[in-house]
């Protein structure tokens, strides 16, 4: 039955890689993998349990007779819920951060970005909008940050050809900004939750590689744009019936939301509680401030009808379901022992984690960055020493290579797919105009990471 689970995994990888052709949503594929995989596992649960957890199962029986019901109860209590908890911790964090962005966006707190980038000069607009994306993505979810910035860009740049280039730079900035902090990308969250990395060490190593992977391709993209952009500055959003918040109120809400998330790593280190609980505390505080500032906003019915960016809602829900499905699906594969065998094969045949990182980055561009990163993480445990210890080289290489490598093709990340959907970009155009630029920045960043490891290890 292990073969069936492996085939389900490979089929899911194939469908995820071709979602831009088939139109099947990645979230639906991952959920299918998780559900069917665990059904197959529990049907033949006795074989899997006796192979992987004989001692724990004997302790669970506590002298009682073994039966099919006992096996199912053991799988549910001792195996399945463990993976549900790990996946739920990440999904809850994403839910909190995406809710924070929705509150900020609904109250016009991102108007400051529109004001900051207000120019017709190509270089200034390109660098200011991508810098804002890079910074926000490092503190918030990179998908939602991407969508917010793409919407801002879409509303002011009227030339679709120019939007395609600027949008590609925004996606790259969001991915690079998210990959160098433990709270900016699901992969970093997963590594942090597994105690494979600490927040400060992770960021100190990946900051310069991520910066290089963003700056170099953005410079090259800017050279393909005209000196003056086709821009139309319309009436600023979130006025009149949308919000009555004045400038200082919106600034305060922005600082509570973004600044609060800066405190999450400290919250975890002090309390040892999951990161999502700290994010929920920030959400609760922001929610209270939101209610206090908007208490005079007409009436309850009109308040509930204020414009909420539906694109954020839908994409956020899909992202959360996708992450949940992938982690549960990979969990069932891990319980068959296949990942351990694959890791042993990689160690014996490749034996170089940098090569593994490069291959993972290429696979990320073809399949999906989080899917490949999660697969790599599931293959190894956190050891006491070496490249696989806490803050070991392997975790940093995988985090960087899969995140930025996913941008080699527009289908390699959910951020890239959001760009394709919003600007109707074809994969062939992206390969022709963007891929080589991203490749140069990716390899340069990887070289910087290699030098850092060489110097400080």
Topology:
Blueprint: H1 2-17, H2 19-22, H3 26-43, H4 45-52, H5 54-61, H6 68-106, H7 111-116, H8 122-139, H9 142-156, H10 160-179, H11 186-193, H12 199-222, H13 247-262, H14 264-271, H15 275-293, H16 300-304, H17 310-334, H18 338-349, H19 353-366, H20 369-379, H21 393-405, H22 414-423, H23 427-456
Helix pairs in contact: 1-3, 1-17, 3-17, 6-11, 6-13, 6-15, 6-17, 8-9, 8-10, 9-10, 9-17, 9-22, 10-12, 10-21, 10-22, 11-20, 12-23, 13-15, 14-15, 17-20, 19-20, 19-21, 20-21, 21-23
What do you see in this structure?
This protein has one domain (2-456). Helix content is 76%, strand content 0%. The chain has helices spanning 2-17, 19-22, 26-43, 45-52, 54-61, 68-106, 111-116, 122-139, 142-156, 160-179, 186-193, 199-222, 247-262, 264-271, 275-293, 300-304, 310-334, 338-349, 353-366, 369-379, 393-405, 414-423, 427-456. The two termini are 43 Å apart. Residues 237-242 and 300-309 have low confidence and may be disordered.
């Amino acid at each position: 039955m292990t073969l069936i689970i492996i085939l389900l995994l490979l089929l899911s990888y194939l469908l995820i890689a071709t979602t831009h052709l088939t139109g099947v949503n990645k979230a639906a594929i991952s959920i299918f993998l998780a559900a069917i995989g665990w059904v197959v596992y529990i049907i033949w649960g006795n074989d899997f349990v006796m192979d992987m957890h004989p001692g724990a199962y004997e302790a669970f029986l506590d002298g009682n007779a073994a039966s099919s019901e006992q096996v199912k109860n053991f799988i549910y209590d001792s195996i399945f819920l463990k993976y549900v908890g790990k996946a739920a911790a990440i999904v809850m964090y994403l839910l909190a951060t995406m809710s924070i962005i929705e509150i900020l966006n609904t109250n016009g707190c991102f108007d400051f970005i529109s004001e900051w980038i207000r120019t017709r000069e190509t270089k200034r607009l390109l660098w200011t909008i991508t810098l804002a994306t890079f910074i926000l993505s490092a503190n918030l979810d990179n998908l939602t940050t991407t969508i917010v910035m793409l919407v801002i860009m879409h509303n002011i740049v009227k030339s679709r050809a120019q939007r395609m280039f600027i949008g590609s730079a925004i996606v790259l900035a969001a991915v690079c900004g998210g990959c160098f902090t433990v709270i900016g990308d699901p992969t970093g969250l997963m590594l942090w939750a597994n105690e494979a990395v600490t927040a400060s060490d992770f960021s100190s190593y990946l900051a310069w590689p991520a910066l290089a992977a963003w700056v170099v391709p953005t410079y090259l993209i800017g050279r393909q744009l005209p000196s003056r952009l086709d821009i139309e500055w319309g009436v600023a959003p979130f006025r009149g019936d949308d919000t009555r918040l004045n400038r200082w109120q919106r600034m305060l809400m922005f600082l509570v939301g973004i600044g609060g998330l800066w405190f999450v790593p400290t919250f975890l280190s002090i309390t040892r509680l999951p990161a999502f609980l700290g994010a929920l505390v920030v959400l609760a505080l922001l929610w209270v401030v939101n209610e206090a500032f908007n208490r005079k906003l007409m009436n309850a019915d009109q308040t509930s009808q204020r414009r909420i960016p539906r694109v954020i809602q839908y994409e956020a829900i899909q992202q959360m379901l996708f992450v949940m499905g992938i982690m549960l699906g990979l969990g069932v594969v891990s319980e068959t022992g296949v990942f351990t065998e694959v890791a042993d094969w990689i160690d014996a045949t490749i034996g170089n984690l940098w090569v593994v990182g490069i291959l993972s980055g290429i696979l990320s561009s073809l399949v999906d960055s989080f899917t490949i990163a999660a697969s790599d993480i599931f293959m190894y445990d956190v050891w006491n020493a070496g490249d696989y210890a806490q803050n070991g080289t392997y975790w940093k290489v995988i985090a960087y290579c899969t995140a930025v490598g996913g941008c080699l093709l527009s289908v390699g990340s959910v951020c890239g797919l959001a760009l394709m959907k919003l600007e109707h970009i074809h994969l062939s155009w992206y390969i022709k105009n963007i891929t080589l630029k991203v490749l140069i920045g990716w390899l340069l960043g990887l070289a910087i990471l290699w030098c850092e490891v060489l110097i400080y290890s």
